[in-house]
Amino acid sequence: MALVPRKKKRKDPALSLDGEAPVGVVKFSEVGIFLVERKMGSSRRSFLTELARKKGFRVEEQMSESVTHVVSENNAGHEVLELLEKQSGICRTEFTAALVDITWFSESMGAGKPLELENRHLLQVKRAAAGTIVVPVSPYACQRRTTLDNKNRLLTDALKILAENAELSANEGRYLAFTRASSVLKSLPYNVTKMDDLKEIPNLGDHSRKVIKEILEDGTCSEVQNLIQSESFQTRKQFTTIFGVGVKTADKWFREGLRTLDELRSSKIKLSKEQEAGLLYYEDLIKPVTKAEADLIRQIVEATVHRFRPAAVVTLTGGFRRGKEYGHDVDFLITHREEGKEEGLISQVISSLTAQKEMVNNVEPSRPCSNGSLAENEPRGIRLTSHAGTTQHITTAAAKEKDWKAVRVDLVVAPFGQYAYALLGWTGSRLFERDLRRYAKHFKHMSLSSHSLFDKKQNKFLPAATEEEIFAHLGLDYIPPQERHA
């Protein structure tokens, strides 16, 4: 047998970012990448091309037979095929390259080598049998439309319990894994009846799939049932439902032998002002707040705010803005179209509401905090806090035999220039906002908060007057509040 000399790896002709020297040799010649410019944009495509070439990947400028991976961002598989048919004349029946989402590209760049393809990386196209288009499910909640119509509640409730236990155990990784698994199931427009329904669904790890499989086969999951009956889970969960009590404190109390609220009340443990209020009004605060109650509180807040700033804007945010009929608290965002006129407003509002109280033992300033509690239709026995950090604690002696209900209310004041970002951040849901920030960081090289969006490549803040403009900055389709129930 004749020995054939091995071909030398060819150097990529592309230049480095400064345009003076070759980026480097091609390390992975067996993989050919073509980046689809549609929705990605030419500048981002150029940036990603040079990034990949610097890491030794072969990136083709034109679609050809040597391409093994067609990478797309925010496009469905059928959209990419239609585009390639028009631009390059490819025949979809003879198309052999893998249609992959940008997540495969990003993860490969992070690993420094081309990763094995998983189902979650693949874009879906028309299925010949059914003739229907399967829209790919994004691993990011900010790219999924999730309404209150949860068709897989039995599955998501079980995963939620596992997520709660992980959070109580301070296991952030497991908490996020179960939360993301539950979230992606919420977004599905169909009932999952068999494991084959989940073949192409991202964010489902082995543990989550095991739980789902057991529920589909037996109607319940033994791990979840054992957890629900666990004294540790029940006790720590109850303690964390007390306003002002976090995971570490709940675990500390449990390890000290406390098991009930009565035992906590009779103990000599020193409570913070928040915890005192949370324990005092526990029965009220664990009851769901109705939309009607939220609207009543809105009238009180608006009337008080407009007493000092008639043109101020008061917006009900949180779950109620997303269309929920019940919530555990009520959030309001306050601003004024004239920049600067919002300054000092929160102190005036709190002082006015405090003056309405009938029985107050003490009012004292406390440490800065970003959110807090107001009250019901007669505000008292509550904690009032501004977003700027001014906090007052109000404790009433009339905790028993009262004819009113204590409700936690968050008052947030933002300058008008930051209003759109504050509105987006305070609308939620929690995972939607988390994934929005994660997406901004990893895919757009931007830093998103409830105050601003900073473009690290341009080294500047991006202004936005509406939520739609923020989504546009991020290159995302706008998702209305009613579809952010991740």
Write the layout of secondary structure elements.
Blueprint: E1 28-35, H1 42-54, E2 57-59, E3 69-72, H2 77-88, E4 98-101, H3 102-111, H4 153-168, H5 172-187, H6 206-218, H7 222-228, H8 231-240, H9 247-255, H10 261-266, H11 273-280, H12 282-285, E5 289-290, H13 291-308, E6 313-316, H14 318-321, E7 326-327, E8 330-335, H15 345-355, E9 362-365, E10 383-385, E11 391-395, E12 409-413, H16 419-427, H17 430-444, E13 446-448, E14 453-455, E15 460-461, H18 467-473
Parallel strand pairs: 1-2, 1-3, 3-4, 8-12
Antiparallel strand pairs: 5-7, 6-8, 9-11, 10-11, 13-14, 14-15
Helix pairs in contact: 4-5, 4-6, 8-9, 13-15
Model description:
The protein is globular, with a radius of gyration of 27 Å. It has helices spanning about 40-55, 75-90, 100-110, 155-170, 170-185, 205-220, 220-230, 230-240, 245-255, 260-265, 275-280, 280-285, 290-310, 320, 345-355, 420-425, 430-445, 465-475; strands spanning about 30-35, 55-60, 70, 100, 290, 315, 325, 330-335, 360-365, 385, 390-395, 410-415, 445-450, 455, 460. The protein has a four-stranded parallel sheet with strand order 2-1-3-4. A three-stranded mixed sheet has the order 6-8-12, with helices on both faces. It has a three-stranded antiparallel sheet with strand order 9-11-10, sandwiched between helices. By secondary structure, it is of the alpha/beta class. The protein folds into five domains: about 30-135, Rossmann fold; about 140-225, DNA polymerase, domain 1; about 230-270, 5' to 3' exonuclease, C-terminal subdomain (DNA polymerase, domain 1, Orthogonal Bundle); about 290-415, 2-Layer Sandwich (Beta Polymerase, domain 2); about 420-485, Beta Polymerase, domain 3. A hairpin with a 4-residue loop joins strand 13 (about 445-450) and strand 14. Residues about 1-20, about 125-135 and about 360-400 have low confidence and may be disordered.
